[in-house]
Sequence to fold (668 residues):
Amino acid sequence: MNRIPFEEVQQQLARVLCKLGFSVDRAGASARLFAETTCDGVYTHGINRFPRYVATIRNGSVVIDAEPKRLAGFGALERWDGQHGPGNLNALAMTDRALALSREHGVGCVALGNTNHWMRGGTYGWQAAEAGSIGICWTNTMPNLPPWGSVERVIGNNPLVVAVPRAAGPVVLDMAMSQFSYGTLESYRKRDQLLPVDGGFDADGNLTRDPAAIEKSWRPLPVGYWKGSGLSIVLDMMAAMMTLGQATHQLSHDPVFECGISQMFLAINPEAFGPEPRITQIADEIIASLHNAKPATAGKPVRYPGEETLRIRAENRELGLPVDPAVWSEILST
Amino acid sequence: MNRIPFEEVQQQLARVLCKLGFSVDRAGASARLFAETTCDGVYTHGINRFPRYVATIRNGSVVIDAEPKRLAGFGALERWDGQHGPGNLNALAMTDRALALSREHGVGCVALGNTNHWMRGGTYGWQAAEAGSIGICWTNTMPNLPPWGSVERVIGNNPLVVAVPRAAGPVVLDMAMSQFSYGTLESYRKRDQLLPVDGGFDADGNLTRDPAAIEKSWRPLPVGYWKGSGLSIVLDMMAAMMTLGQATHQLSHDPVFECGISQMFLAINPEAFGPEPRITQIADEIIASLHNAKPATAGKPVRYPGEETLRIRAENRELGLPVDPAVWSEILST
Fold:
């Protein structure tokens, strides 16, 4: 693993995007999001994801200069058309829009159809929380998960992001509805390790911790079995119904043609009624109750969602972003 | 199990509530919610729960004539004080309030502090969906679940309800953040059965399907292990921060003193931009994609959340509500 300074990564990615036709501003913004994702330790959806992103630009799934267009608005609720633009730039703009609506109405809700993969969902949670707002957003995805009771992938892993602002560092949950992603299964298999808990079914329909068996059966588990399966279904329904856009069952099984997806962005302004010092205190006391809980393993206290992010971010900023040499040389030669 | 007609159940429960001091109207409304919960097949939170509800009235946890009071409002967002009134009547009123806000602003969000157990959360999902709205609501609870990485119960199972309106019958997800409730563990133990999947840890810290071992360790599993643990934490944070009310760690471990809790009610109006026939079509096509998916067990198609409810409701309306004779005679003698 090489370490490359943040700015150099951002510059190189922006250079590639400009070469593909992005404006300088949009190339810089998109490159920043990829670099920040790696910087925050979400290695699956940062630089390592960039080559696949380039493929979706080249095959026309992503329309590089398309910007979201407002279709309808009523008070705190709006419907937008992503016009197949870059998923991360669209999501960034729609989070800003939900935040603006929440400043005006206390709450804001934006439904975005015809968009593309937003890369790291947590990005938009951090964006909302750093603006002082609660952020709740989710996306549907290609069919990559069998619903509970089926062997066929007809639901998505539909990541859900919930972010809570907090002076000492936001709390950001970014959870897909599958217990393990295919990327995680692959990395356990390559290390020849079993999963820490059951992650899916084998070909005979038995629960298993063997990543290779799950990759073969294409039957990863929804989180909480029937419960996460149900949550995935309602997230997809809400996104498709509010956008009048595509639902998971209408999307391609091919990751480089996972396009025209549907997303929801909610922002809730905790200080809509005026400045309120008790809010920070309430959040800090909840965090303290977690940190004070007796750990299952001595010396390993409970962590809140996103707790490690600020530490990892600082470390990667200082040491440089960890980059797979093969991926990096592919980017340099693009 | 006896079968008692719906109206007779409602009458008897209302009689008891009147005797305890409820007004006739409020007794009737509360009794109806308990009867409807049993009628819909959620037997843990209907008639069988009524004796514990009576205990919370008698010990002063529930203030029978208290009604929610509006503390602050800004556009589509409001903060209310439940004033320790009956949890189900408070939640019913706050769902109505969120619906009214969503009719005015497209979205409505109500934060309700100082309230009591809402009994079946799904009730308020059905209420929103039957009014044609998406409903998202959640509650915090007493500390009844160890967060991931701890052996100590400091988070709640914080049920989350997501309801989607649909002409052919709403889709209503009502999920607690524990994989199995203590009630479910008890019923498996009494039937001498193992859980269908791992439900918690035994005293030695090993995952187990043995309900008795989990009851003994007090370590049920969050749904999806670390994921449901994280979701429980952010649900509690949002509810406590927006209400300025109590968080899980501040609540009693004794179920009859689980009072002064915090809840959130969101309503999103899918037809805020005008009547839209495509919405029903989108929902129906998603349901069809589930029903057409190849089942894991031949002849047992995938079900959507809440799918069985309308059938069970009709059956119990016709045959009478299934009532535990011991619980029923306790109610009759109250």
In short: DSSP finds eleven helices and eleven strands in chain A. The longest strand of chain A covers residues 107-116. Residues 37 and 213 of chain A are 30 Å apart (CA to CA). Chain A touches chain B through 84 residues (CB under 8 Å).
